[in-house]
Amino acid sequence: xxxxxxxxxxxxxxxxxxxxxxxxxxxxYYPSSEAPPPGNDADAIRGxxxxxxxxxxxxxxxxxxxxxxxxxxxxxxxxxxxGGSLFWAQxxxxxxxxxxxxxxxxxxxxxxxxxxxxxxKVRTLVCDANRLTVDDGPYDAAxxxxxxxxxxxxxxxxxxxxxxxxxxxxxxxxxxxTRPHGADVWAEYFYTKPATVRDYxxxxxxxxxxxxxxxxxxxxxxxxxEESAAWTKAVLDNDSxxxxxxxxxxxxxxxxxxxxxxxxxxxxxxxxxxxxxKK
Length: 279
Prior knowledge:
- The structure is a single chain.
- The longest helix is centred in the first third of the chain and has 23 residues, at 42-64.
- The chain has a seven-stranded mixed sheet with strand order 3-2-1-4-5-7-6, with helices on both faces.
- Helix 4 (83-92) links the parallel strand 1 and strand 2.
- The chain contains eleven helices and seven strands.
- It is an alpha/beta fold.
């Protein structure tokens, strides 16, 4: 179901977060904890969103020590349209296997990789993360950017234990549960199953991984929802070519963005960066 959900969203993701080649589908990082004035120009807002999404990856790279932990053979698990995979390959020289369960995304990622001259550095693998097998391991690291909430965590860490070398890192950026209502707001729109940091740590420990780093960036990512809602409103206000179905979907998205932002600021959800090491 998740794979079909993201296959169906491909064109929408390109429209909101494109044009590429590095397209990201995750929140942005705002060091000042304040979003820029949103205005009513959809293209300008989209440019700001993309800038801050790249900022989130640069922040992740800093706290995860990407220059030595994410510069070798990397699994990008739940890669979306490959923005993160291209980032790790271009910025840190990583050889990346981009894992997706959305078949329609694989040729898009491969095309963007060729466009960047990274055909030999980024390859896609269509499979379920819980059944992950690779034939060219062991890997030096696995990265999951707002994708691990879709996985069965014990199964996922167990599979990673077979494909990562000793001492390898599992780097997770995710939305974590702090109270039930926050989980409902997140899960109902994105079809995911948020959990607590402790849930992750216990699943990792059982598979032979240790939680070694935890960074909370909830406040610094909250402004993303203001910008995301502003983009949606700008499209609704200015695009006269939208169909009735498209308008309805955008209004639902606008309400969801506003609800996420409210829950983020109220403390119902936590955005965190975790790093685990294989023992």
